[in-house]
């Protein structure tokens, strides 16, 4: 095996954004369970610290730092805080903030803010962390996007456009970093039970769900659990050198006959 593809060290410092709840929090726990020290980042840093405290109580290494992808200064400060356990080996870019709005009705400033948080801020953080990975010929960049890339949902114009941009960014980076030892992967979750969307206006949800159903976006009412997505992300990280997962999309399984009758699998 060539030095370029030398085995990963057993202890790989990891960073997870959007880690205050949902997929991000579950991923931080899964990576810590696998033996990796983890830095959790989000605007709700108090929630990140609660998750980090649970990881430490279970014998893992974890810290928390505030991250607001809307502000370059916050992104820079967070990138510096990420080095607390050593050079970053794994970056899970999971943070997302979907706000509702049709493209022709959304204020341009609100649209631009969504693009900043969900795309531009992602690149700004990657630009601070990825060069060190390239220098060391080793690292994983994992972009958590959305199945709205393949099945866009009306009423989420800015978020979907930004996530399309993230998928494009990831694909280009796969080309640009090929042969450097830095692996780039995309993980697309389907509908997942999390706090995402908890701030949406309830009055908008009925008409919105009707629109989604009209375009085939709500075939059934099952949701993935964050822990299921975390398991997939941890698997991507654990791939042996010389291989990587380009992208993977995960969907919730539809209810079976036992579920419909009140039974359980």
Provide a descriptive summary of the structure in words.
With 265 residues, the protein is of the alpha/beta class. The chain has a single domain (9-250), classed as Rossmann fold (3-Layer(aba) Sandwich). It has eight helices and seven strands. The protein has a seven-stranded parallel beta sheet, sandwiched between helices. The longest helix has 29 residues, at 108-136. It starts with 13 loop residues before the first strand and ends in a 5-residue tail after the last helix. The model is unreliable at 261-265 (pLDDT under 50).
Quickly describe the structure.
This protein is α/β, with parallel strands linked by helices and about 260 residues long. The chain is about 45% helix and about 15% strand.
CATH C-level: Alpha Beta
What is the CA–CA distance across the termini?
A: 44 Å
CATH superfamily: NAD(P)-binding Rossmann-like Domain
What is the averaged pLDDT score?
88
Shape: globular
Which structural class fits the helix and strand makeup?
Answer: alpha/beta
The largest sheet, given as strand count, sense and whether it forms a barrel, is:
7 strands, parallel
Radius of gyration: 19 Å
**Can you tell me the CATH architecture?**
3-Layer(aba) Sandwich
Strand content: 5-15%
Work out the helicity level: 40-55%
Order of helices and strands: EHEHEHEHEHEHHEH
Total helical segments: 8
